[in-house]
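User: Hey, quick favor. My workstation is busy. Could you predict this chain's structure for me?
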Amino acid sequence: MQDFNCPALYQWLLNQEQQDDDNRRFYSSYLLGHVSLAEAEFEDNPAECFELLNSNVDTALAEDRLSDEDRAGIRALLNEGLVAQAH
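Assistant: No problem, here it is.
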């Protein structure tokens, strides 16, 4: 994804963390660390940053002890953020 903007996604997630919705806060917090790590490794390569972010989130969601609802919510928020940062 060439137009991926990691800093914009990070900022969007920070804004979501401030919402009055406990689930949204949890999902945002969960994703912020993954975005930070991907950006730190591939700051100048949006496509690689995007791939690493998705790979790390997929791996973490498979390994972490989360409910199916939480996994779906995290994935949905990430997808929402990817659309938001592209605009």
